[in-house]
TrEMBL record, chain A:
Tagged with keyword Signal: yes
Signal peptide feature range: 1-19
Source organism superkingdom: Bacteria
Name of the protein described by the UniProt record: Leucine-binding protein domain-containing protein
Domain Leucine-binding protein: 39-381
InterPro entries found in the cross-reference section: BCAA_transport, Leu-bd, Leu_Ile_Val-bd, Peripla_BP_I
Protein's organism: Desulfosporosinus acididurans
TrEMBL record, chain B:
UniProt key word Transmembrane: yes
Transmembrane segments: 12-34, 54-82, 94-118, 138-158, 194-214, 226-249, 269-288
Membership in a protein family: Belongs to the binding-protein-dependent transport system permease family. LivHM subfamily.
GO CC term, one of those recorded: plasma membrane
Record-given protein name: High-affinity branched-chain amino acid transport system permease protein LivH
Organism: Desulfosporosinus acididurans
UniProtKB/TrEMBL annotation, chain C:
Membrane topology designation: Multi-pass membrane protein
Gene: livH_1
Name of the protein this chain belongs to: High-affinity branched-chain amino acid transport system permease protein LivH
GO-annotated cellular components: plasma membrane
Organism the protein comes from: Desulfosporosinus acididurans
N-terminal signal peptide: none
Listed GO MF terms: branched-chain amino acid transmembrane transporter activity
Transmembrane segments: 12-31, 37-58, 65-85, 91-111, 118-136, 156-174, 204-221, 241-266, 278-297
């Protein structure tokens, strides 16, 4: 019996080793990134795990972008083929996913990941292998710039936290003309923390006062205990830099508790789902920073195509995923090559790209897109354009 | 907290959250009491129930009661299938093997569900009136009352079923000594299937109410409440039906008081700390000794 | 009783095999033949082998149902990361620090909780693991919920020899008088107590040693991955380690190695089909438990006895 087990184990071990060697040979011969008439682009996304909602939304949008691009003849005369790798919403798995995409699938570029932490975990692999990576929604400052040095090959399609926080704070101080603000942060999200820090600093320098700061954790459903504390601190405005899944219930519960203050947020609010999570009435007197006016024609086309393909409305993750993919396509086209260094240079020199989220020019010093922000006012269940803010 | 009113208000929030935990914990504790299996998939059965309710309300346009009934029936069938396929063959295996299987079932429901309905959240339509009630400065809404009353009614129903009906007697007998029960003519297989059916139906009811109360559902929604309900069940003394109710309420109130004191980020840690302290001081839970009966 | 020399034929052969495995893989890495994905998978196999073996010491050998192992992994990961990043300490010191802090934590929480039995201990350890995670989420010094950046300091040699040393220590512990005492606790705690075994002492000892190696594994993890977050060490990770142990066979150290190998390789192999990966893993888990609830190896060990001459085996 014992012997049988021993042999079975040995067999399993040698099999797995053999399997390993088999693929090894194949992949090391592969080399060329555009084998078989396809141009391979990888996406390291949160497809399962805690924030699967972000990654799956982006995946759909990227698929749509690829489909449209391929219908137009693809890139460099080849059809684009996406390779998706799931990072399970975990940084360690994100490193694995990037390693797989870059060293095993030999992709020419990587899109992802959705959170800053997972992007940071993937970025070293991209830098080491000289493969450009663009994150749709990794907003933390240090994703592209660390210790004053821009990270080569790492780009983003979204705003950075300080900009959005600043826009929101200036809007509160100058347009709403309020003095006392409360902040309600998603503790697990570096996006939320980054926005809150920037808001706090800018609001204070505009002679405002932060009267209370409370925290929740993404996935929470009951926000009333923290809202009660915010309510008793009596703010004029509440800044909630979170994602719509939590923002909806927060606004709803706050209104039910009799809090009639203005609520302000960032681009994480951007989803039609918000109007299902709280009533139109409750969402009045709410404002958020977003990338582009909702009635922009390019956005309307995207929403239409997305709805036709998936029978659901796209959210901000989908919109940014779509832009990230198209930015990368544009760069590969400009570079006219699949060489990582050339794509990187093309991305750095990208100017006036017609994105869903407005005209995008990449800042070569920070690898952040320079694009306008708009303030959206929610009025009777509709997004209404208020003002446009250009970055300095 | 600045005043007594605020404290009372936080208590109300805690009770309404706690009644949700209690609802889920009821099924948890019943299954554990009879089969001695930590059914980690219970929270995910709740998710299945929530989706069934959503389907019934938004697609079939059922009114509230037929919808919740539909969800309960589907979940009961799912519960029986899960028990027959995954747990029954392991009835005499080690506890740890059964636990691993439960983890497997839980992952299967979560990611199988994600495959079927997608990862994005769905929103529940408003079923209950949005009226707010105000008594002495303390506000609560219609949904809060529904939650608490449903939890209480189901607890009593379950308690009476287990105590005074024939199937309840069979459940208690099987829980006490499965082999002896078998020898005495109790159909243990049917009894255990019934236990899973009832437990899963309760989870589905909780899922639908959860969906209505908080508006949104997603395939991973069962993980956190499942874990919390489990804590609630242990807190009250696992296997004891009124214990699950009390455990749920205690957990809900604790959480809202901790958040109300401004320590929301430590909320779950406090809940687990209380759990561990209760276990160390009184391993059988708050109600472990007073009520000797084991479901 | 005949004294068995350390340098008997079996040990020499094992050592030889270990060196051959190391040398072959190191050779493949140095010559760039082994793709980076395989190297990183192998290193993760090493990390999970240590985790599974150390949990097996608690669950399989001593019979204490613990499902909070990721908590100790987190402690090791964070403290080793801090030593590497903030103090620029050598890797060896970082891993040791991670292990020691985890062991101290294991001792402190083990002493009161190990009085509990069966499911209750499981629940308590589950809670402990979650508490550790929440503490790290709230500590800004460790990067809070957003996470902490640690560089890559671990390579194949570190991971491999770290694993071998851990396995040798655990193996020798299990085969020592202490190990026998632990097994007696598993088999029958009351009988063990009656025979004069200080059950509390051995339970805490096994728990502390298990926590130490979980800490070391966590240290290797954080010094290999570029970035760590508290949520990495949630109860699902604890479950994952437990699955490896049970899959391999509770009480079998070679089973734990096999379990860690299978689960890690499966995870990487299925990453091409993300939407199905978790469903397939779940189904395999259920099927495995249905057909072989005692795990692949049961409580047996894979060893090299069958290669030896008959006479020698009867002597040993």
């Amino acid at each position: 019996m014992k012997k049988l087990f021993a042999m079975a184990t040995a067999a399993v071990l040698s099999l797995s080793l053999l399997a390993g060697c088999g693929t090894t040979g194949a992949s090391s011969n592969g080399g060329g990134s555009a084998a078989g008439g396809n141009l391979k682009i990888g996406a390291d996304l949160e497809l399962t795990g805690g924030v699967a909602m972000f990654g799956t939304a982006a995946q759909k949008a990227i698929d749509l972008a690829v489909e449209q691009q391929n219908a137009k003849g693809g890139l460099l005369g080849k059809q684009i083929k996406m390779d998706y790798a799931d990072n399970k919403s975990d940084p360690g798995e994100s490193t694995n996913a990037a390693t797989k995409l870059i060293t095993q699938d030999n992709v020419v570029a990587v899109i992802g990941a959705m959170t800053s932490g997972n992007t940071l975990a993937a970025s070293q692999v991209a830098i080491d292998n000289k493969v450009p990576l663009i994150t749709p929604t990794g907003t933390a400052d240090k994703v592209t710039v660390e210790n004053g040095q821009v990270k080569p090959y790492i780009f983003r399609a979204c705003f950075i936290d300080p900009f959005q926080g600043q826009v929101a704070a200036q809007f509160a101080a100058n347009t709403l003309k309020v003095k006392k603000a409360a902040i309600f942060i998603d503790q697990k999200s570096d996006y939320s923390i980054g926005l809150a820090d920037a808001f706090s600093a800018n609001f204070k320098s505009a002679n405002g006062q932060i009267v209370s700061q409370e925290k929740y954790v993404a996935g929470d459903k009951d926000f009333r205990p923290q809202l009660a504390r915010i309510k008793s601190s009596n703010p004029d405005v509440v800044f909630v830099p979170g994602y719509y899944g939590e923002v909806g219930p927060i606004v709803k519960q706050a209104r039910e508790m009799g809090m009639n203050q203005a609520f302000i947020g960032g681009d994480g609010w951007g989803s039609p789902e918000l109007f299902n999570l709280a009533s139109a009435d409750q969402l009045n007197n709410c404002y958020y920073v977003n990338h582009v006016a909702i009635d922009d024609p390019s956005m309307a086309d995207f929403v239409k195509a997305f709805k036709a393909k998936y029978k659901q409305d796209p959210d901000s993750f989908a919109a940014l995923g779509y832009d990230a993919a198209r930015l990368m396509f544009q760069a590969i086209k400009d570079a006219n090559s699949t060489n990582g260094d050339k794509i990187r240079t093309a991305l750095e020199n990208l100017k006036g790209f017609k994105g869903l989220n407005g005209d995008i020019t990449m800042d070569p010093k920070t690898h952040n897109p320079i694009k306008d922000a708009v303030i959206i006012k929610i009025e009777n269940g509709k997004n209404v354009f208020m003002t446009k803010v250009s970055p300095k | 907290m600045h005043s007594i009113t605020e404290l009372l208000q936080q208590l109300v929030y805690g009770l309404s959250l706690g009644s949700i935990y209690a609802l889920i914990a009821l099924g948890y504790t019943m299954v554990y009491g009879i089969v001695k299996l930590i059914n980690f998939a219970h929270g995910d059965v709740m998710m299945v129930g929530a989706y069934m309710g959503w389907l019934a309300i938004t697609v079939f346009h059922f009114p509230f009661f037929p919808a919740i009934l539909f969800a309960m029936i589907v979940a009961a069938i799912a519960g029986i299938i899960i028990e027959r396929a995954a747990y029954k063959p392991l009835r005499n295996a080690t506890r740890i093997a059964a636990l691993i299987t439960a983890i497997g079932v839980s992952l299967f429901l979560e990611y199988g569900g994600m495959l079927v309905v997608g990862a994005q959240m769905r929103t529940y339509p408003n079923v209950f009136p949005e009226t707010m009630y105000k008594i002495g400065g303390i506000t609560f809404k219609f949904g809060d009352i529904v939650m608490l009353v449903t939890a209480l009614v189901l607890m009593l129903l379950l308690h009476f079923t287990v105590q005074y009906t024939k199937i309840g007697k069979a459940m208690r007998a099987s829980s006490f000594d499965m082999e002896a029960a078998l020898l005495m003519g109790v159909n243990v297989n049917t009894t255990i299937s019934a236990t899973f059916a009832i437990g899963s139906a309760l989870a589905a009811a909780a899922g639908v109410l959860y969906g209505i109360y908080f508006n949104s559902i997603d395939p991973l929604m069962g993980i956190t409440p499942g874990l919390k309900a489990f804590v609630a069940a242990v807190l009250g003394g696992i296997g004891i039906i009124p214990g699950a109710m009390v455990g749920g309420l205690v957990l809900g109130v604790t959480e809202s008081l901790v958040s109300g004191l401004g320590a929301s980020t430590w909320r779950d840690a406090v809940a687990f700390l209380i759990l561990i302290l209760v276990l160390i001081i009184k391993p059988s839970g708050l109600f472990g000794k007073n009520l000797r009966e084991k479901v | 009783m005949k004294r068995v020399s350390i340098l008997n034929r079996k040990n020499a052969l094992t050592l030889f095999l270990v060196i051959v495995i190391y040398a072959v893989i190191q050779g493949l890495i140095v010559t760039d033949i082994l793709p980076p994905l395989y190297t990183s998978t192998l290193i993760q196999v090493c990390i999970y082998v240590i985790l599974a073996a150390s949990l097996n010491l608690i669950n399989g050998i001593t019979g204490q149902f613990s499902i909070g192992h990721a908590g100790f992994m987190a402690i090791g990961a964070y403290f080793a990361g801090i030593v590497s990043v903030k103090f620029h300490g050598p890797l060896f010191l970082a891993l040791l620090a991670g292990g020691i802090v985890a062991a101290v934590a294991g001792f402190i929480v083990g002493l009161p909780t190990l009085r509990l039995r069966g499911d209750y201990l499981a629940i308590a350890t589950l809670g402990l693991g979650q508490i550790v995670m929440i503490i790290f989420q709230n500590m800004d010094y460790f990067g809070g919920a957003a996470g902490m950046q640690v560089g890559r300091h671990v390579n194949w040699s570190w991971a491999f020899w770290g694993t071998i040393i851990s396995l040798v220590v655990i193996h020798n512990f299990v085969n020592s008088t202490h190990g026998r005492a632990c097994i007696s606790v598993r088999e029958n705690e009351i009988a063990a107590e009656a025979m004069g075994v200080n059950t509390t002492k051995y339970k805490v000892l096994a728990f502390t040693l298990g926590a130490f190696f979980a800490g070391v594994a966590g240290g290797i993890y954080s010094n290999y991955m570029y970035f760590i977050q508290p949520t990495t060490f949630n109860f699902l990770t604890s479950f994952n380690i437990l699955v490896m142990v049970v899959l391999g066979g509770l009480g079998s150290m070679t089973g734990s190695i096999l379990g860690a190998l299978i689960m890690t390789v499966l995870n990487v192999a299925l990453s091409g089909i993300p939407s199905l990966r978790m469903v397939i893993t779940a189904l395999l888990l259920i099927i495995m438990m249905l057909f072989r609830p005692s795990g692949l190896m049961g409580t047996k060990e894979f060893n090299l006895n069958f290669l030896e001459k008959k006479e020698e085996r009867t002597v040993a």
